[in-house]
């Protein structure tokens, strides 16, 4: 039986929340992100503002120039987080197979649910109605046999839309669309494809996978499957995620060498960060653990000013704690570890409001992507290179002395 996957995404999310709070803003060009004379970018633009060419990521100064009559709002993240939680709670009422993708979007596996609602189409209408009635927000929904087609369908249906792609029609639905509509195709890939005369997803679907592999490596094969509407990825729900994530290792020989301690800490931070991001979560608390030769163990903890999932933020907190300990005590260390706790599911998009944090996030994602394809060792940060001489290295990263930690 073909799966039925829904992709649900709220329209102009941050702006719409502001409009619920202040109905005078309805029907007007509204921008959330800050004043137009400030550094920074548009986080969200109302559809009225988009008519003037405004869009997320555009510098606020440009937005102010293109649409001086727009209403510029700073925004309030706690409100968006609350709205997001209420939105996800509504979705969870409809199916337990819920995978939140960010604050305002989620996948829902609704295979077999037609018997309850009459049809999947009626089920989608019921979801839209509840979101509208209870939150005052518009949800656009795409329905298909897999995630990729469902996502493009919801995107295409906006605003206040609903598109259902019947099983077997995925290819035909994709065929006329420009390649840039396919998630995963950024500006560079689009440029290469255009150079090859491939402008539509339909054209892309007809290129032999071997040819795409030649141009894009492993990603080429993914492109081929996606362009053909084939996407087997499951809807992954994490109802009972762990409360903390940590990695630690024991040195073959006790060490007081600061560079070695920091390099190991950096590596462990990357492993923790990568695990955290796989779960689409972020952490508010970082803990450093040290064990000395005589087995006395200490832990030091720091709360982050803002939740984060980047290796840099985890390492920065960990190394700060390490420096403090080392300033007081220089005993040889037997074991070092780092952990994160106080985990939350959502909120990553908060960082998007700050361009430098967003760039870091994008870089981290790119590194995760490459490591997923080519192994953890495919990319090494400057600091961990030092570990080459200490730990044996494999495709999947350094082999630490505690086997279960080398995952
Ligand atoms: P999106 O769903 O990408 O955008 P949107 O909801 O504003 O508009 P639509 O879905 O109708 O196209 O992102 C959801 C929220 O995430 C958005 O309202 C604000 C925030 N966000 C940022 O802060 N920075 C960004 O660059 C993007 C794309 C979104
Ligand atoms: Mg949205």
What is the chains' assembly state?
Answer: single chain
Mean pLDDT: 88
| Major pleated sheet | 5 strands, mixed
Strand content: 15-25%
Which strand order spans the largest sheet, edge to edge or round the barrel? 5-6-1-7-8
Rg on CA atoms, Å: 24 Å
| Amino-to-carboxy terminus distance | 35 Å
Task: Label the overall shape.
Answer: globular
Count of discrete alpha- or pi-helical segments spanning 4 or more residues: 15
Share of helical residues: 40-55%
List each distinct ligand once.
thymidine-5'-triphosphate, magnesium ion
Number of strands: 14
Instruction: Report the structural category.
Output: alpha+beta
Order of helices and strands: EHEEHHEHEEHHEHEHHHHHEHEEHEHEE
Low-pLDDT windows of residues: 348-353, 401-407
List descriptors.
five-stranded mixed sheet, four-stranded antiparallel sheet, binds magnesium ion, alpha+beta, binds thymidine-5'-triphosphate, 20% strand
Structure description:
With 407 residues, this protein is α+β, with helices and mostly antiparallel strands. The chain is 41% helix and 20% strand. The protein is built from 15 helices and 14 strands. The strands form four sheets. It has a five-stranded mixed β-sheet. The chain has a four-stranded antiparallel β-sheet with strand order 9-12-10-11, with helices on one face. Strands 3-2-4 form a three-stranded mixed β-sheet. Helix 11 crosses helix 12 and helix 13 packs antiparallel against helix 14. The longest helix is centred in the middle third of the chain and has 21 residues. The relative contact order is 0.10. Bound molecules: thymidine-5'-triphosphate (TTP) and magnesium ion.
């Amino acid at each position: 039986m073909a799966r039925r996957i829904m992709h649900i995404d709220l329209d102009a999310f941050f702006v719409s929340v502001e409009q619920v709070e202040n109905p005078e803003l309805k029907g007007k060009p509204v921008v959330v992100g800050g004043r137009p004379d400030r550094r920074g970018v548009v986080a969200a633009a109302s559809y009225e503002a988009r008519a003037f060419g405004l869009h997320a990521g555009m510098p606020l100064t440009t937005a102010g120039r293109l649409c001086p009559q727009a209403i510029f709002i700073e925004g309030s993240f706690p409100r968006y987080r609350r709205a997001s939680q209420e939105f996800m709670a509504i979705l969870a009422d409809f199916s337990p197979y819920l995978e939140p993708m960010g604050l305002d979007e989620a996948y829902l596996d609704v295979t077999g649910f037609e018997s309850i609602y009459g049809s999947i189409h009626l089920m989608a209408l019921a979801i839209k109605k509840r979101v509208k009635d209870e939150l005052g927000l518009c949800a656009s929904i795409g329905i298909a046999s897999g995630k990729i087609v469902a996502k493009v369908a919801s995107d295409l249906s906006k605003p206040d839309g609903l598109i259902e792609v019947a099983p077997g029609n995925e290819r035909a639905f994709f065929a006329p669309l420009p390649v840039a509509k396919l998630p995963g195709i950024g500006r560079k890939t689009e440029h290469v494809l255009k150079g090859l005369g491939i402008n539509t997803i339909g054209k892309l679907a007809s290129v032999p996978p071997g040819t795409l592999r030649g141009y894009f490596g492993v990603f080429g094969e993914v492109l081929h499957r996606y362009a053909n509407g084939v996407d087997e990825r499951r809807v992954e729900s994490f109802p009972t995620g762990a409360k903390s994530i940590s990695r630690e290792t024991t040195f073959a020989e006790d060490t007081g060498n600061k560079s070695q301690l920091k390099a190991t800490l950096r590596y462990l931070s990357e492993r923790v960060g990568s695990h955290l991001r796989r779960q689409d979560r972020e952490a508010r608390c970082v803990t450093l653990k040290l064990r000395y030769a005589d087995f006395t163990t200490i832990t030091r903890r720091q709360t982050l000013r803002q939740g984060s999932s980047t290796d840099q933020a985890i390492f920065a907190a960990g190394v700060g704690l390490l420096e403090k300990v080392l300033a007081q005590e220089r005993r040889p260390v037997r074991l070092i570890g780092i952990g994160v706790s106080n985990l939350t599911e959502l909120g990553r998009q908060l960082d998007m409001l700050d361009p430098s944090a967003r760039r870091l996030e994008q870089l981290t994602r790119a590194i995760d992507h490459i490591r997923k394809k080519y192994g953890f060792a495919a990319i090494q940060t400057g600091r961990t290179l030092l570990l080459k001489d200490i730990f044996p290295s494999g495709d999947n990263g350094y082999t630490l002395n505690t086997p279960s930690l080398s995952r």
